[in-house]
């Protein structure tokens, strides 16, 4: 057990090292990991950061592995908790072995085989070689949703699996009022605003959303805000140039103060083609937004159709358009769904319960002989 300094002097406190990408804020893994490290659990554990340097080589990178190993050796953690599979998870698993760490947890957020636009060779290597090694190397594998926990790769590892622990919902934070944001964007107070926040990629379904936006062009009382960056952004902006010129669609890029824009909106749209849960949906729920999302993966664990939003078939632009138009037409339904979304995120995704589940898991691992 490590010792750390506090106001009361030197105390025994387990050290848990967690990896964060040097690519920075904005992604789900970075956000979820940061929220866990900043939770009330910091009173019981000393969280330390292992920086995953994305600039150190491409593909399977020995240089990157050694850099991770050296950080782990310097920290001397009681547990290393790394935050995903794919290449980063493999690198972390190897680095932990080289550093002699015997207690590790991997949060499983998704599998490489789900990605639609990986090359066949890359997908095969990750799915059948690297990710199985990562899972087998971990002391525990924890899904971020029931959907993930029920995947075959985790079901065959029952002795290693703590089923699932949901992502932490975000704290509600806003620096500018709803009216001021709308004035800044030149959006009338009575205009219905739909917002979407994610990586702007085809995996997230933005090429489908683009077609839906075009079909909604006659909805003159609707403005759509799109927050985020990604490889499909430039193409999407070009294909929606008419809607942008008319002010029907506003691309905002990356925004650190996402809460300000959610607070100024009425509907949240997630057109993704696959999703293990969705930090963005949890955040939108915290701001009382009615939800429209694809019926895929772990999304139905957040969105209950007809209760706090609408679920649509992934890849179906017409269904997506109809669900948005339904909510644009009914302020009563928007308010009902938004109210229910807020209640659900504060019960099913209660922070104290999630903290208790992580605390229980960490304590169990620390008690086990290695």
Backbone CA Rg: 21 Å
Broad CATH class of the largest domain: Alpha Beta
Q: Number of domains in the coordinates?
A: 2
Helical stretch tally: 15
List low-confidence stretches: none
- Tell me, briefly, the overall form: globular
Helix content: 40-55%
Amino- and carboxy-terminal Cα gap: 13 Å
Number of strands: 14
Structural class category:
alpha/beta
User: What string, H for helix and E for strand, traces the elements in order?
Assistant: EEEHEHEHEHEHHEHEHEHHEHEHEEHHH
Q: Supply the CATH superfamily name of the largest domain.
A: Glycogen Phosphorylase B
Physical arrangement of strands within the biggest beta sheet: 4-3-5-6-7-8
CATH architecture of the largest domain: 3-Layer(aba) Sandwich
Report on the structure:
There is one protein chain. The chain is of the alpha/beta class. Helix 2 packs across helix 3 (86-99) and helix 8 (206-215) packs across helix 13 (317-329). The longest helix has 18 residues, at 120-137. It folds into two domains: 3-168 and 349-367, Rossmann fold (3-Layer(aba) Sandwich); 178-345, Rossmann fold (3-Layer(aba) Sandwich). The protein has helices spanning 28-37, 62-75, 86-99, 120-137, 146-149, 152-155, 178-184, 206-215, 233-239, 241-245, 258-263, 279-286, 317-329, 331-345, 351-367; strands spanning 3-6, 9-12, 15-21, 46-52, 79-82, 104-108, 140-143, 161-164, 192-197, 222-227, 249-253, 267-270, 290-294, 309-312. The chain has a six-stranded parallel sheet with strand order 4-3-5-6-7-8, sandwiched between helices. The protein has a six-stranded parallel sheet with strand order 11-10-9-12-13-14, sandwiched between helices. The protein contains 15 helices and 14 strands. It is globular, with a radius of gyration of 21 Å.
